[in-house]
């Protein structure tokens, strides 16, 4: 693999792993905020409307750019990893447009009564996020495995010594 290919692979590894770590930290902090009892419904709605857009933006940038670098890392057996990352991005798009945006409308303005289907959307978002981050984790693990190929050294024919002909 060329130096450029190795650089692209390294950047793909970093970006995919960074997204998994960031998403995990985001969820851990989000669950603690919601279950802490320190915030009322209005405050939780405000926090959701403030925190989730950067979450999705960072996710799309990290995973999308990771995908580009992975695709540019020529010479690396990466078809399955690319498929996992593409699937993760598709799920992120479905979650953002099909679930998060409707959820954001349901809690705007913050503090008003949520419709009955709010819980369905919320659970759908949890499941979709779990799957898409899981797919990204598997892809990050796949591309992070060290793959060293033996270096092939080419010896010009004029330098090969025939041992049988040597005295």
Description of the structure:
This protein has one domain (3-146). The chain contains four helices and no strands. It has helices at 3-35, 41-72, 79-106, 118-144. The longest helix is centred in the first third of the chain and has 33 residues, at 3-35.
What layout of secondary structure does this protein have?
Elements: H1 3-35, H2 41-72, H3 79-106, H4 118-144
- The amount of helix comes to over 70%
The Cα radius of gyration reads 24 Å
**End-to-end distance, in Å?**
41 Å
Query: What is the average of the pLDDT values?
Result: 85
Count of helical regions: 4
Number of domains: 1
Q: What does the overall shape look like?
A: elongated
* Element order: H for helix, E for strand: HHHH
Beta-strand portion reads: under 5%
Biggest beta sheet summary: none
The count of DSSP E runs of length 2 or more, i.e. the number of strands, is 0
List low-confidence stretches: none
Class by alpha and beta content: mainly alpha
């Amino acid at each position: 693999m060329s130096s450029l290919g190795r650089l692209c692979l390294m950047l793909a590894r970093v970006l995919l792993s960074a997204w998994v770590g960031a998403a995990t930290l985001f969820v851990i902090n989000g669950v603690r905020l919601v279950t802490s009892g320190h915030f009322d419904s209005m405050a939780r709605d405000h926090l959701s409307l403030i925190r989730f857009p950067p979450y999705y933006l960072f996710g799309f940038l990290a995973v999308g750019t990771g995908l580009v670098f992975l695709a540019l890392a020529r010479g690396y057996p990466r078809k399955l990893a690319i498929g996992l990352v593409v699937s993760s991005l598709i799920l992120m798009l479905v979650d953002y447009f099909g679930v998060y945006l409707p959820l954001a409308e349901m809690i705007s303005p913050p503090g008003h009564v949520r419709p009955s289907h709010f819980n369905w959307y919320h659970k759908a978002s949890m499941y979709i996020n779990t799957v898409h981050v899981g797919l990204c984790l598997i892809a990050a693990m796949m591309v992070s495995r060290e793959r060293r190929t033996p270096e092939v050294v080419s010896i010009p024919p004029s330098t090969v010594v025939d041992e049988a002909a040597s005295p």
